[in-house]
Fold:
Amino acid sequence: MRPLLFAANWKMHLGPDAARAYLDQFLAGYTPQPDRKVWFFPPAISLDTVSRRIAGRPDLLAGAQDVHWEPKGAFTGATSVPLAAEAGARAALVGHSERRHVFGETDADTARKVRAVLAGGLVPVLCVGETLAQREAGETLAVARRQLLAALDGLETDALRRVVIAYEPVWAIGTGRNATPADAAQVHSEIRSWLTGRGAASPMVLYGGSVNLKNIAELLAERELDGVLVGGASLDAATWVQLVSTPVA
Ligand code: PEP
Structure:
Protein backbone atom coordinates (compact mmCIF):
# COMPACT_ATOMS: atom_id res chain seq x y z
CA MET A 1 0.00 0.00 0.00
CA ARG A 2 1.24 3.51 -0.73
CA PRO A 3 1.81 5.85 2.22
CA LEU A 4 -1.16 8.14 2.86
CA LEU A 5 -1.58 11.13 5.12
CA PHE A 6 -4.97 12.24 6.42
CA ALA A 7 -4.92 15.69 8.02
CA ALA A 8 -7.83 17.12 10.01
CA ASN A 9 -8.14 20.90 10.20
CA TRP A 10 -10.57 21.58 13.01
CA LYS A 11 -10.44 25.35 12.40
CA MET A 12 -12.20 27.23 15.26
CA HIS A 13 -13.97 24.14 16.66
CA LEU A 14 -13.43 21.58 19.45
CA GLY A 15 -12.09 23.11 22.63
CA PRO A 16 -10.20 20.92 25.15
CA ASP A 17 -13.25 19.07 26.53
CA ALA A 18 -14.74 18.39 23.11
CA ALA A 19 -11.30 17.43 21.76
CA ARG A 20 -10.84 14.88 24.54
CA ALA A 21 -14.26 13.32 23.86
CA TYR A 22 -13.55 13.31 20.12
CA LEU A 23 -10.21 11.54 20.56
CA ASP A 24 -11.67 8.96 22.94
CA GLN A 25 -14.17 8.10 20.21
CA PHE A 26 -11.56 8.21 17.45
CA LEU A 27 -9.05 6.02 19.31
CA ALA A 28 -11.75 3.48 20.18
CA GLY A 29 -12.97 3.29 16.59
CA TYR A 30 -9.85 3.54 14.44
CA THR A 31 -7.64 0.55 13.73
CA PRO A 32 -4.16 1.80 12.74
CA GLN A 33 -3.13 0.85 9.24
CA PRO A 34 0.42 0.41 7.96
CA ASP A 35 1.67 3.39 5.92
CA ARG A 36 -1.29 5.52 7.00
CA LYS A 37 -0.77 8.63 9.13
CA VAL A 38 -3.41 10.81 10.74
CA TRP A 39 -2.56 14.38 11.71
CA PHE A 40 -4.79 16.65 13.79
CA PHE A 41 -4.71 20.44 13.59
CA PRO A 42 -6.84 21.57 16.56
CA PRO A 43 -7.26 25.17 17.66
CA ALA A 44 -4.24 26.31 19.71
CA ILE A 45 -6.21 26.03 22.94
CA SER A 46 -6.65 22.26 22.37
CA LEU A 47 -3.12 21.41 21.18
CA ASP A 48 -1.90 20.24 24.57
CA THR A 49 -4.98 18.06 25.12
CA VAL A 50 -4.70 16.46 21.69
CA SER A 51 -0.95 15.83 21.82
CA ARG A 52 -1.18 14.26 25.27
CA ARG A 53 -4.10 12.02 24.24
CA ILE A 54 -2.26 10.66 21.17
CA ALA A 55 1.16 10.32 22.86
CA GLY A 56 2.85 7.01 22.08
CA ARG A 57 1.09 6.60 18.74
CA PRO A 58 3.68 7.09 15.96
CA ASP A 59 0.93 7.13 13.30
CA LEU A 60 -0.80 10.13 14.91
CA LEU A 61 0.45 13.70 15.23
CA ALA A 62 -0.81 17.07 16.45
CA GLY A 63 -0.04 20.33 14.65
CA ALA A 64 -0.75 24.05 14.87
CA GLN A 65 -3.15 25.73 12.45
CA ASP A 66 -0.98 28.82 12.25
CA VAL A 67 2.17 30.22 13.85
CA HIS A 68 3.95 33.55 14.05
CA TRP A 69 7.41 33.76 12.51
CA GLU A 70 8.99 35.35 15.58
CA PRO A 71 9.93 32.98 18.42
CA LYS A 72 8.66 35.42 21.06
CA GLY A 73 7.64 39.02 21.57
CA ALA A 74 4.78 41.48 21.75
CA PHE A 75 2.39 39.83 19.29
CA THR A 76 -0.92 39.67 21.13
CA GLY A 77 -3.03 36.70 20.16
CA ALA A 78 -0.32 34.96 18.13
CA THR A 79 1.28 31.57 18.80
CA SER A 80 5.00 31.12 18.23
CA VAL A 81 6.60 27.90 17.00
CA PRO A 82 8.31 27.24 20.37
CA LEU A 83 5.00 27.74 22.22
CA ALA A 84 3.19 25.41 19.82
CA ALA A 85 5.99 22.86 20.19
CA GLU A 86 5.77 23.09 23.98
CA ALA A 87 2.08 22.21 23.67
CA GLY A 88 3.04 19.15 21.61
CA ALA A 89 2.82 20.38 18.01
CA ARG A 90 5.11 18.62 15.56
CA ALA A 91 3.76 20.28 12.42
CA ALA A 92 2.12 23.57 11.44
CA LEU A 93 -0.14 24.67 8.62
CA VAL A 94 1.26 27.67 6.75
CA GLY A 95 -0.68 29.88 4.36
CA HIS A 96 -4.07 28.19 4.72
CA SER A 97 -6.49 29.94 2.40
CA GLU A 98 -8.38 31.40 5.37
CA ARG A 99 -5.14 32.92 6.64
CA ARG A 100 -4.40 34.33 3.19
CA HIS A 101 -7.89 35.49 2.21
CA VAL A 102 -9.61 36.30 5.53
CA PHE A 103 -6.59 37.58 7.48
CA GLY A 104 -4.65 39.05 4.56
CA GLU A 105 -1.54 36.91 4.98
CA THR A 106 0.93 37.54 2.14
CA ASP A 107 3.33 35.31 0.24
CA ALA A 108 6.14 37.01 2.16
CA ASP A 109 4.48 36.01 5.45
CA THR A 110 4.35 32.38 4.31
CA ALA A 111 8.08 32.48 3.55
CA ARG A 112 8.86 33.75 7.06
CA LYS A 113 6.55 31.20 8.66
CA VAL A 114 7.95 28.22 6.72
CA ARG A 115 11.44 29.18 7.88
CA ALA A 116 10.31 29.60 11.48
CA VAL A 117 8.55 26.23 11.47
CA LEU A 118 11.61 24.49 10.04
CA ALA A 119 13.93 26.27 12.48
CA GLY A 120 11.75 25.05 15.34
CA GLY A 121 12.00 21.45 14.14
CA LEU A 122 8.36 21.14 13.07
CA VAL A 123 7.00 20.04 9.69
CA PRO A 124 5.51 22.88 7.63
CA VAL A 125 2.36 21.99 5.71
CA LEU A 126 2.30 24.74 3.11
CA CYS A 127 -1.14 25.37 1.62
CA VAL A 128 -1.37 26.68 -1.94
CA GLY A 129 -4.30 27.15 -4.29
CA GLU A 130 -6.06 29.46 -6.67
CA THR A 131 -9.25 31.51 -6.32
CA LEU A 132 -12.18 30.91 -8.67
CA ALA A 133 -11.30 34.02 -10.68
CA GLN A 134 -7.72 32.82 -11.08
CA ARG A 135 -8.93 29.37 -12.16
CA GLU A 136 -11.31 30.87 -14.71
CA ALA A 137 -8.48 33.04 -16.02
CA GLY A 138 -6.39 29.88 -16.60
CA GLU A 139 -3.90 30.82 -13.87
CA THR A 140 -4.20 27.71 -11.66
CA LEU A 141 -0.71 26.32 -12.28
CA ALA A 142 0.90 29.76 -12.31
CA VAL A 143 -0.61 30.59 -8.90
CA ALA A 144 0.65 27.31 -7.42
CA ARG A 145 4.14 27.96 -8.81
CA ARG A 146 4.14 31.55 -7.54
CA GLN A 147 3.07 30.51 -4.04
CA LEU A 148 5.67 27.72 -3.93
CA LEU A 149 8.42 30.02 -5.13
CA ALA A 150 7.48 32.78 -2.69
CA ALA A 151 7.40 30.45 0.32
CA LEU A 152 10.18 28.00 -0.46
CA ASP A 153 12.73 29.68 -2.70
CA GLY A 154 16.22 29.54 -1.29
CA LEU A 155 15.63 26.68 1.15
CA GLU A 156 18.38 24.08 1.41
CA THR A 157 17.44 20.71 -0.07
CA ASP A 158 17.35 19.09 3.37
CA ALA A 159 14.80 21.67 4.52
CA LEU A 160 12.76 21.40 1.32
CA ARG A 161 12.50 17.64 1.83
CA ARG A 162 10.71 18.18 5.14
CA VAL A 163 7.94 20.34 3.65
CA VAL A 164 4.49 18.88 2.98
CA ILE A 165 2.29 20.69 0.43
CA ALA A 166 -1.49 20.87 0.53
CA TYR A 167 -3.12 21.89 -2.74
CA GLU A 168 -6.37 23.54 -1.69
CA PRO A 169 -8.26 25.43 -4.39
CA VAL A 170 -9.85 28.37 -2.55
CA TRP A 171 -13.17 27.88 -4.36
CA ALA A 172 -13.39 24.31 -3.02
CA ILE A 173 -12.84 25.02 0.68
CA GLY A 174 -16.00 24.73 2.74
CA THR A 175 -18.17 25.15 -0.36
CA GLY A 176 -19.20 21.57 -1.12
CA ARG A 177 -17.45 21.84 -4.51
CA ASN A 178 -14.30 19.81 -4.99
CA ALA A 179 -11.75 19.58 -7.77
CA THR A 180 -12.14 16.47 -9.91
CA PRO A 181 -9.44 13.89 -9.26
CA ALA A 182 -8.03 14.61 -12.72
CA ASP A 183 -7.93 18.38 -12.12
CA ALA A 184 -6.26 17.88 -8.76
CA ALA A 185 -3.78 15.41 -10.28
CA GLN A 186 -2.66 17.95 -12.86
CA VAL A 187 -1.84 20.51 -10.18
CA HIS A 188 -0.23 17.89 -7.92
CA SER A 189 2.00 16.79 -10.74
CA GLU A 190 3.09 20.39 -11.33
CA ILE A 191 3.79 20.86 -7.60
CA ARG A 192 5.69 17.57 -7.44
CA SER A 193 7.91 18.42 -10.37
CA TRP A 194 8.57 21.90 -8.93
CA LEU A 195 9.80 20.26 -5.72
CA THR A 196 11.70 17.34 -7.24
CA GLY A 197 13.37 19.77 -9.64
CA ARG A 198 14.85 21.41 -6.55
CA GLY A 199 15.97 18.19 -4.93
CA ALA A 200 13.02 17.09 -2.80
CA ALA A 201 13.10 13.34 -3.46
CA SER A 202 9.54 12.21 -2.81
CA PRO A 203 7.39 15.11 -1.67
CA MET A 204 4.02 14.57 0.01
CA VAL A 205 1.28 16.51 -1.80
CA LEU A 206 -2.17 16.51 -0.17
CA TYR A 207 -5.47 17.62 -1.66
CA GLY A 208 -7.95 19.72 0.30
CA GLY A 209 -11.33 21.22 -0.50
CA SER A 210 -14.70 19.71 0.47
CA VAL A 211 -13.34 16.18 0.85
CA ASN A 212 -16.02 13.95 2.37
CA LEU A 213 -17.16 10.34 2.65
CA LYS A 214 -18.73 10.49 -0.80
CA ASN A 215 -15.69 11.65 -2.76
CA ILE A 216 -12.69 10.39 -0.75
CA ALA A 217 -12.35 7.01 -2.49
CA GLU A 218 -12.50 8.54 -5.94
CA LEU A 219 -9.97 11.22 -5.01
CA LEU A 220 -7.50 8.80 -3.44
CA ALA A 221 -7.78 6.44 -6.40
CA GLU A 222 -5.74 9.15 -8.16
CA ARG A 223 -2.17 8.23 -7.31
CA GLU A 224 -0.92 11.81 -7.52
CA LEU A 225 -2.72 12.41 -4.21
CA ASP A 226 -0.64 11.43 -1.18
CA GLY A 227 -3.51 12.18 1.14
CA VAL A 228 -6.02 14.83 2.08
CA LEU A 229 -6.44 17.90 4.28
CA VAL A 230 -10.02 17.99 5.53
CA GLY A 231 -11.99 20.67 7.36
CA GLY A 232 -15.74 20.13 7.74
CA ALA A 233 -15.73 16.34 7.40
CA SER A 234 -13.08 15.97 10.11
CA LEU A 235 -15.17 17.54 12.87
CA ASP A 236 -17.21 14.48 13.71
CA ALA A 237 -15.12 11.64 15.15
CA ALA A 238 -17.26 8.84 13.68
CA THR A 239 -17.11 10.38 10.20
CA TRP A 240 -13.37 10.91 10.52
CA VAL A 241 -12.81 7.28 11.56
CA GLN A 242 -14.68 6.17 8.43
CA LEU A 243 -12.85 8.64 6.23
CA VAL A 244 -9.36 7.68 7.35
CA SER A 245 -10.27 3.99 7.08
CA THR A 246 -11.28 4.29 3.43
CA PRO A 247 -9.86 1.34 1.49
CA VAL A 248 -7.43 2.51 -1.20
CA ALA A 249 -5.80 0.33 -3.84
C1 PEP B 1 -9.61 23.14 5.01
O1 PEP B 1 -9.98 23.81 5.95
O2 PEP B 1 -8.39 23.01 4.80
C2 PEP B 1 -10.59 22.47 4.16
C3 PEP B 1 -10.17 21.80 3.12
O3 PEP B 1 -11.90 22.60 4.53
P1 PEP B 1 -13.15 21.76 3.94
O4 PEP B 1 -12.76 20.31 3.94
O5 PEP B 1 -14.28 22.05 4.88
O6 PEP B 1 -13.41 22.24 2.54
In short: The chain has eleven helices and eight strands.
